[in-house]
Amino acid sequence: MQTIQEYVEANKQRFLDELFDLLRLPSVSADPKFKGDVEKTAAFVAEKLKEAGADNVEICQTAGYPIVYGEKIIDPALPTVLTYGHYDVQPADPYELWDTPPFEPTIRDGKIYARGSADDKGQFYMHVKAFEYMMKNNALPCNIKFMIEGEEEVGSINLGNFVKENKEKLKADVIVISDTSMISLETPSLETGLRGLSYVEVEVTGPNRDLHSGVYGGAVANPATILAKLIASLHDEHNHIAIPGFYDDVVELTQEERDELNKAPFEIEAYQEDLGIQEVWGEEGYSTIERTGTRPTLEVNGIWGGYIGEGAKTVLPSKAYAKISMRLVPNQNSQRITDLFKKHFEAIAPDCVKVEVKPHHGGEPVVTPTDSIAYKAAEKALTETFGIKPIPTRGGGSIPIVALFEEVLGLKTVLLGFGLNSDNLHSPNEKYGVENYLKGISTIPLFHKYYAELNK
Ligand code: BES
Ligand code: MN
Ligand code: MN
Fold first, then answer.
1. CB 395 less than 6 A from any atom of ligand 1
2. Measuring from atom 18 of ligand 1, which residue has the nearest CA?
3. Contacts 24+ apart (CB under 8 A), 219-226
4. Of the listed 18, 71, 88, 430, which one is catalytic?
5. Is 397 touching ligand 1 by the criterion CB < 6 Å?
6. CA separation for the pair 398, 238 (Å, rounded)
7. What is the pTM of this model?
8. Which residues pair with 58 in a beta bridge?
9. Between the CA of residue 431 and those of 289, 404, 424, what are the distances in Å?
10. Is the beta carbon of 192 within 6 A of some atom in ligand 1?
11. Could you tell me which CATH number the domain at 4-194+365-454 has?
12. Cα distances (Å, whole numbers) of residue 225 to 218, 221, 233
């Protein structure tokens, strides 16, 4: 029997080659242009699960993109780990900002550059390779199920129904997900929370058509100006969100919990330098770690209207638009927050314009336990790989399905992420460290081993 280290050492080139094949498939779920490629990616994942030794591999069709399922049940009396991941990726636009093409993976300075390298292909594929090792070496200590979906980046629209309709198939004891970040390879960490999300689009309409800005300007409200004012009013002078009732359900952390989170190593100068900013910004009274992990936020994701083409056009636009997202923390509820936003935004709009608020997808916040067997197993596994005990952190991102897993399947999740916040997720030049990938593959079998052992 080979140890996992020996196996990784002997197979690392193949592990990279296979990941590269996966990364070459542009599985962008948001853009219908890539429909064929997204479907090919599902087939690729199914094939790799089969090759690794999974049984009952299925490409489960949904109203949208399919969910790939596979399992290995070695003994119904043993615990079952359900591994979740997503094979879809964010759009790669704007392509011109990439140093190398997003779907032609390349290694530079020990990092794999490609769309989806960290989010989430490079991360879920570690589980497939770790599973291959456990199968080949008779080292699978528990049952394992895989559910890899293709719509995470568009809000997991069909996964909720799939989970509700397949409770028996998905029966397990814990969910493990590698789709989050750790602090660094020197300071491993485990995310113990994900924020929820409310996403809305607003449309502000002024006159019934675009107007000559000289003939009508100054006499008719410009929807772009009004939208800018409305948006600016959503934060007060302390950078608190100024929507009445917005904070009502927010659970404040105890001073002890805050101190604990703030102990995580964080260099504000390095953070500012990396981002090319002079100074950080945010809600008064909270540290950067708290602002991104434990506090709700409101961000404009896009704003447009009027003429944005080459040269100048003197026009007073009829319409202006914005996409706005709010990140939520326990115990905020995305439907309630979306309703509050809509009510407030409509109330503050002046009579010279009409506003419409259109809700998009949402998701609920979660905090995952740190006193569970699964958390302890993850902690032990990371400690063994990295030689230092991982620290618990709160992540700023969202994986909306995690709250639903808890609600529908009654299962808790372990966020065993190996990415870094600086991996440029959703940005040009997304990357994932070769070392993160290989260390992830080495750590996962240890997680399963300790999870099975601690369950005895
Ligand atoms: N993997 C990310 C979420 C993430 C990233 C969590 C880093 C923690 C640390 C996931 O793919 C993602 O991007 N989620 C979206 C939400 C979705 C509804 C589009 C997000 O957070 O914006
Ligand atoms: Mn992801
Ligand atoms: Mn993502």
1. yes
2. 155
3. 220/316, 220/352, 221/350, 221/352, 221/353, 222/316, 222/317, 223/305, 223/317, 223/318, 223/319, 223/320, 223/353, 224/305, 224/306, 224/317, 224/320, 226/320, 226/349, 226/350, 226/352, 226/353
4. 88
5. yes
6. 25
7. 0.95
8. 69
9. 23, 29, 6
10. no
11. 3.40.630.10
12. 11, 8, 13
Domain-wise residue ranges, the chain: 4-194+365-454, 196-250+296-363
Measure 11 CA to ligand 3 centroid, in angstroms. Answer: 28
Distance (Å, rounded) from C-alpha 52 to C-alpha 70?
Answer: 10
In what order do the strands lie in the sheet containing 80-86?
A: 55-60, 67-72, 143-149, 80-86, 174-177, 413-415, 189-191, 391-393
| Tally of CB atoms within 10 A around 102 | 24
Q: Which amino acid is at 397?
A: G
Which 3 state secondary structure label does DSSP give 223?
helix
The catalytic position among 18, 132, 151, 152 is 152
Q: How far is CA 414 from CA 82, 84, 190, 395, in A?
A: 10, 10, 8, 13
Looking at domain 196-250+296-363, its CATH architecture is 2-Layer Sandwich (3.30)
Read off the amino acid at residue 28. V
**Digitized pLDDT (tens) for each residue of the chain, 456 residues in all:** 899 999 999 999 999 999 999 999 999 999 999 999 999 999 999 999 999 999 999 999 999 999 999 999 999 999 999 999 999 999 999 999 999 999 999 999 999 999 999 999 999 999 999 999 999 999 999 999 999 999 999 999 999 999 999 999 999 999 999 999 999 999 999 999 999 999 999 999 999 999 999 999 999 999 999 999 999 999 999 999 999 999 999 999 999 999 999 999 999 999 999 999 999 999 999 999 999 999 999 999 999 999 999 999 999 999 999 999 999 999 999 999 999 999 999 999 999 999 999 999 899 999 999 999 999 999 999 999 999 999 999 999 999 999 999 999 999 999 999 999 999 999 999 999 999 999 999 999 999 999 999 999
152 annotated active-site: yes
